[in-house]
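Submission checklist for the structure archive. All mandatory fields must be present; incomplete records are returned to the submitter.

[x] Identifier: Histone deacetylase
[x] Organism: Chitinophaga oryziterrae
[x] Residue count: 298
[x] Sequence attached
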Amino acid sequence: MLIAYDPIYAHPLPEGHRFPMVKYELIPAQLLREGIITENQIIKPAPLEEDIILQTHTLHYWRQLQQQTLSDKEQRRIGLPQSPALTLREITISRGTIDCALHALEHGVALNVAGGTHHAFADRGEGFCLLNDFAIASNYLLSQHLVKKILIIDLDVHQGNGTAALFMGNEQVYTFSMHGDHNYPFHKEVSDWDVPLPDGMNDNDYLKTLQDCLPVLINKVKPDFVFYLSGVDILETDRYGKLKVSAQGCLQRDELVFNTLKKHGIPCAVAMGGGYSTRIKDIVNAHCNTFKAAGEIF
């Protein structure tokens, strides 16, 4: 198991935005402390090349990010103030997801400590997402003829609206999003398969829903590669998630996904996605459980 670690997490942000960013330092530290990984399993990705970015995002939007010319309205839509460090971080995350995908093709699984920036569209960012790392990595694998059919399993509590829009009509990438029905984004795009969840859904109902979907997905799509967005904002402790999934239920979700993919011999690259519990340890522990499950199963 390899993990991609983005060391550029500490870019300047207003006080209200710093809290969720701390997890990107704490996750690898906890994984190392608990002996789940070793130092040689961590890579620090290089920034992504422009030609790869432009396979997914428009030249105009990329120039806005480079030249720091996003309008106030565009920055509010993203939810973060623009800065060169933030742009650098996003292209580093996307390179990390590609690196994870390449490693997973050989070894079965790899995880990005960051990533899952599924609200980014071709020409704009939204919801703390500037560039769409799963879309960038998917287009890279396809352009290099490394895979033929990709399945994106998005289990963040928020719909992967940017990902859905980017791959609408693309027969090589199948988008699956299981998300809170009454949660952001309030205007949903159309994934290949959307499963909206009611507020307050508990472990049993959540896991039963996922368990029913996964065999159908594998049999219908027949993917030779999977990108899995393992957001922990499904937790009952999450400030915005509106679901009632326990930490154990979140772990069982990961185990269900990994066991299914392992059974069918499908390699998988994972990104952490969202997590906004009041206590940072709830976020970090849940993310670390994803790494534990991947290591034990693969």
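[x] Structure attached
Curator remark: The domain at 2-297 is CATH 3.40.800.20 (Arginase; Chain A). Strands lie at 2-4, 42-43, 109-112, 150-154, 173-180, 193-197, 225-229, 268-271.
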